[in-house]
Design goal:
Blueprint: E1 3-8, E2 13-18, E3 23-25, E4 29-31, E5 43-45, E6 49-58, E7 69-76, E8 82-88, E9 94-100, E10 105-115, E11 120-123, E12 127-132
Parallel strand pairs: 5-12
Antiparallel strand pairs: 1-2, 3-6, 4-6, 6-9, 7-8, 7-10, 10-11, 10-12
């Protein structure tokens, strides 16, 4: 972790500031939980279950970040982003959440993490699924 040293000759004190390490997400995926088929940018019916998958990792050394609580967010059409759930990454840094489409329109999903004492926060890219009545 980079350390920045600042010294002050007059007061003879040293200030040490630690910079946070960058974190990142793999490209998220939406898949059918039964078949594993990709659902990104596809048309689905109300009641269809979609599985949101991605990995949180240290973007410098690629270490996966486990045990991190992240927010799964959803946007309907061009509305505001709303929280769907808080989900904790598993021991391999994976985020895995299944959501049932309940409203007609473009459903966009993304993950957000605020970061912690070591890592800066990050947001995943948004992925979309189009929902319609059957």
């Amino acid at each position: 972790m980079p350390i920045i040293y600042e010294s002050y000759a007059v007061s003879a004190t040293v200030k040490v500031t630690a910079q946070k390490k960058p974190s990142a997400w793999t490209a998220p995926a939406l898949v059918n939980p039964e078949t594993g088929a990709g659902l990104k940018d596809t048309i689905q019916y109300i009641g269809t279950k979609v599985r949101f998958l991605c990995i949180l990792y240290d973007s410098v050394d690629m270490k996966r970040l486990s045990g991190k609580t992240v927010r799964l967010m959803r946007q309907l059409n061009t509305g505001a982003w709303t929280k769907v759930a808080d989900v904790t990454t598993d021991s391999f840094g994976y985020l895995d959440y299944t959501y049932t489409l309940a409203e007609v329109g473009v459903n966009s999903f993304r993950a957000e993490w605020d970061g912690d004492a070591v890592y800066a926060g990050c947001d995943s890219k948004a992925v979309k699924s189009f929902a319609r009545h059957s």
